[in-house]
Amino acid sequence: MERTIKVTGKGKISVKPDTIRLIMTIEDIEKEYADALRLSAEMTEKIKNIFEEQGFERHELSTLKFNVDAEYERYQDRDNCWKNRFEGYKFTHRMKIEFPADNKRLGKILYSLGHAPICPEISLEYTVADPEKSKNELLEKAVLDSSKKAQVLAKAAGLSLGDILNIDYSWGEIDFVSKPMDTFALQECRMSTSVGSYDIDIEADDIDITDIVTVVWEIR
């Protein structure tokens, strides 16, 4: 019977974020379905125009989620029975755009959004431009950790390690994200033709990521 030892290794790295990810959500409600679609398209175009003026290509603004749902309000009738009243069709359009971390550029973008005739809800995240490089480094560290633990255990038991028989890794999705600010809404949201910028001073924390790999070794 083949003798084996199974050891789980843990990799951990800290990555300095180098990319800003802006997530913007617009939503509104209209009585007619077609009007909800039309308003969503108009608001989306205004946001694309803003980013185009900031030097982006329009296609760089990508959709994360879009849906139109019937909206109902709960109310009590004269007999105190709860009923639903149709309010209209509510659209939700969530978009994202990414660019190299630059507080000055971020300040200009937020100023433009804050002085536009729309008020998107905004989420600010920091991430890395090359997540695959970081994932590979993480896996290397996890396998090395497994190897070190296996060698210690084998030596303590008076055995020696043989060949690797199996490596088990879940290949789960790892999200390299740091969120220095909660979701917020720009309060001004008023039309202005002036060119300006908000003074942004954000230094995002390093992103700490861990992952595990299980390795089965032959022992002699």
Describe the fold and architecture.
With 220 residues, this protein is an alpha+beta fold. The chain has one domain: Protein of unknown function (DUF541), domain 2 (Alpha-Beta Plaits, 2-Layer Sandwich). Helix content is 27%, strand content 40%. The protein contains 3 helices and 8 strands. It has helices at residues 33-53, 103-114, 131-156; strands at residues 4-15, 19-30, 62-76, 82-100, 121-127, 161-168, 184-185, 207-219. The chain has a 5-stranded antiparallel beta sheet, with helices on one face. A 3-stranded antiparallel beta sheet has the order 1-8-6. A hairpin with a 5-residue loop joins strand 3 and strand 4 (82-100). The chain is elongated, with a radius of gyration of 26 Å. It starts with a strand and ends with a strand. The model has no long low-confidence stretch (mean pLDDT 88).
Number of beta-strand segments: 8
Rg value: 26 Å
Structural class determined from secondary elements: alpha+beta
CATH-defined superfamily: Protein of unknown function (DUF541), domain 2
CATH class category label = Alpha Beta
Number of helices: 3
Helicity, in percent? 25-40%
Query: How are helices and strands ordered from N to C?
Result: EEHEEHEHEEE
CATH architecture: 2-Layer Sandwich
Terminal-residue CA separation: 12 Å
Strand order of the largest sheet: 3-4-2-5-7
Summarize the biggest pleated sheet: 5 strands, antiparallel
Q: How is the CATH topology named? A: Alpha-Beta Plaits
